[in-house]
Amino acid sequence: SLYVSEYFSQSAQKLSFYSWYGNAKLFHFHVPEDTVLLRWLLQASRGKGPECTSMEITVHFRHGAPPVINPLGTRFPANATVRPSYSISITLGSAVQNTTFVNVTTPAAGDWFIAAHLPQAAGRIEVKGFSTPCPYMFQADMFVLRLTDMPVLEPGVPMPHTVVSPAKPLHVKVFVPKHAAGMRFQLSSCVTSEQRACSVRVLLGSITLPQSFQRSLTCTGSTNCSLALDSPPWEKWLQIMVESLGSANASVSVEMLASFTVCRPGSTSSFLNFISLNQSQAGGRPGAAGSSAPAAGEAAGNVSSLQSSCLQSQPVVREDLDVVSVRYRLLNGPSVPVSSLAPTLLLLNLNTGTDSGGALVVTLLLNKTSVSLANATVAACVSAASPVLSLNATQNCSTAFSQGYPLSVSTSSAEAMLIVLYPQTDDWFLSLQLLCPKAQGGCGSAEAKVSVFAYLTPCFNDCGPYGQCSLLRRHGYLYAGCSCKAGWGGWSCTDDTKAQSVGTQNLATLLLTLSNLMFLPAIAVAVYRYYLVEASVYTYTMFFSTFYHACDQPGVAVLCIMDYDTLQYCDFLGSVVSIWVTILCMARLKKLLKYVLFVLGTLLIAMSLQLDRRGVWNMMGPCLFALLIMVTAWVHHGAKRRHCYPSSWKRWVFYLLPGITLAFTAISVYAFMETNENYYYTHSIWHVLVACSVAFLLPPRDKHKKPWAWSQKLTCRYQICQNDREELYAVT
Fold it and tell me: Which sequence ranges are marked TM in the entry (predicted)?
């Protein structure tokens, strides 16, 4: 045999602390056919700075779809099926790098996914630029060992082979045809080269994670041994590995035989399906008035076909709506007939490679009037790769190499729903069959009508009212995840364990919006002292900060008067410009120079905020530059007057020192105390402290201006001017 090794690599990604699925870094690989060994090379590293501590990285593996994980221990939505992912932990201790290998023998071909993340996020809101987070990097590489000339085992044809040694197992493959109801593998004529008792082990199927359904068969002696499998995967290559359990130098000769039991499907007329498809494309609805119905002769033919076949297939049309969004439409109407003679089968095509990043939703609705038997139950199974064809005997929905998802409807419970999160890339099947109690007669002629609704959606229920469905991307692969808010959690934001009540949400909205009214004293002081430009800036800041926080709320107490991004930009711009004009006003510059700096600084601040809205230097840069201008102006004024400026001790004690204290306290709260839990009151404190500091820091009015002097400029009237000099020299 000729083995070929291949190597696949992807660029390293920076890991994040986990709060929702978008924080997990996804790696997508494709394992080729005939792969006998898969080895993952996992490399984790961290920075060397003092902020870097030992960290535990969790890595999840899954075949066919991204892994469904739950690091936070939250609840999944009702009716959702969740199977734990296969995961390992990588610890970064004193060493700055860790290398781990994971081996998988006879892996399943197709898509494989790896998701890596750090532990749960602390919830602290960090200002960009105040602290330097430690970089934790993760990279996954894949090595595969592939057999180029794997022998093919033809069904029904015995094939002799030789296992050279225990170190070199024999690999063969057999193709499973469509409509295969069962498979029987038989091993015979087992002879060793040393004429001793033969002992071999046979492994059928490939390994998939998180669950592997690989079947094992141990054969000893020269007697025949066999293994029967129900519902093998349709239209796929099944890999078989035979390894010797004898001595190292002895070879083993065996003869293998694979045979299949094929199920003949019975379905409605192909011509009828074609007519229904044409009518649906023309705008007609199958089953509605005006659409053609099966004739009596065709219906009788369908009944006879049902009695002679082992399954009844219903035609299903896949309708692509959007990215990771598919609707399945039954050509014969949403209601399908279900009997006890043979299961009714529906094919749900999810094998495009782009469907595994959403949620498959299947809903069954039983028409109670259609069931003639009171205690009858319609059992259903949703399975991948192959359908469940024996629902009356197998209630756990298991196939040869996978485990399906059971559903059932009856007259007492007429509706059932199933949600499959991140369904694996494959052909999915929905099998339905009518089950009757053993003592009840007349089951053979009974029939039930079940309405089937199936669709693929990016996020189930669009993440609900307290979540946002986000479309994520890793290279060319798209998948979706829910980002929850207002304390809600879970895969679809349905876990209300830590959810905020409506009263708490209203309180948060009122605090964050009404705290901006503390700018009213600062506006009044500015107007009183004839600082009209500064008062206009404070009014602008108060207005947009109020409505930005009213729109930024995560719960139901939300009010958006315009686009969210516009409100956020105006709020950030007003905040920084308010600090800029306040410090320049304190500098006591000449009016022309002051207003030029006002306009020029505002334009530069607007540009920097457009580049990076949350950068710390967008606020610290203008502040430091304005402080430099203020200190220079104060030094100039002090040197010119030959004493300290401002000269009044009352100005320092009652205005400047309290204002500076309030400003530094506000910066400390903003930069170091805000978390996701206390944001609504810590940020409200920030609003109050900043507004109060502005009222204290504004300089007194010019001596030649009267209080409220701006009101005299607003009046428009004629004035009689008196020339006192001419009257003084008047002679009568």
Answer: 507-531, 592-611, 617-636, 652-673, 679-698
